[in-house]
Write a structure and sequence with these properties.
elongated; Ferritin; 5 helices; mainly alpha; binds fe (ii) ion
Length: about 150
């Protein structure tokens, strides 16, 4: 249990990234403009719904193991490595690049965390994170295809 406790700090960092990702995806969702508006608007909606679901799942998983998840915007901003950007119009390329950047960080973050949990023998955390990673992989592939 001791080794699991140490991981809660990393879970809170990941939770913070998921929180900031949710808002940043809304930025692209609302502000994308151009001929691919509908496709990217709908794609980002799917993504923020999923990221929000993962955010909730990560926090509830922390609670199951008696940790306190961060709940304040100030904590998320302080601990996230994903940075906010101002509200501004995005063309197709900027929108896809921004979304890919977000997903890359979430995937990397979740993978590191998955491996740490694996080392600690924390199977339920590994299982949850593998599910998230699989879906980030799929979305990153879709973005690559859209950019071709
Ligand atoms: Fe929307």
């Amino acid at each position: 249990m001791e080794n699991i406790k140490k991981l809660h700090k990393d879970f809170n960092k990941h939770l913070s990234n998921l929180a900031v990702a949710n808002f940043k995806l809304h930025n692209v969702h609302w502000n994308v403009a151009g001929p691919n508006f509908i496709a990217i608007h709908e794609f980002t909606e799917k993504l923020y719904d999923e990221v929000f679901e993962n955010f909730d799942q990560v926090a509830e998983h922390q609670k199951m193991y008696e940790a306190l998840p961060f709940v304040k915007m100030s904590e998320y901003l302080e601990n996230a490595t994903i940075k906010e950007i101002n509200s501004k119009p995005f063309n197709t390329k900027e929108a896809l690049d921004t979304v890919k950047e977000i997903l890359d960080v979430l995937r990397e973050d979740a993978t590191e965390l998955r491996n740490e949990c694996d080392e600690a023998g924390w199977f339920s955390a590994v299982g949850m994170l593998e599910g998230h990673i699989e879906s980030y992989n799929k979305h990153i592939w879709m973005i690559r295809q859209m950019g071709e």
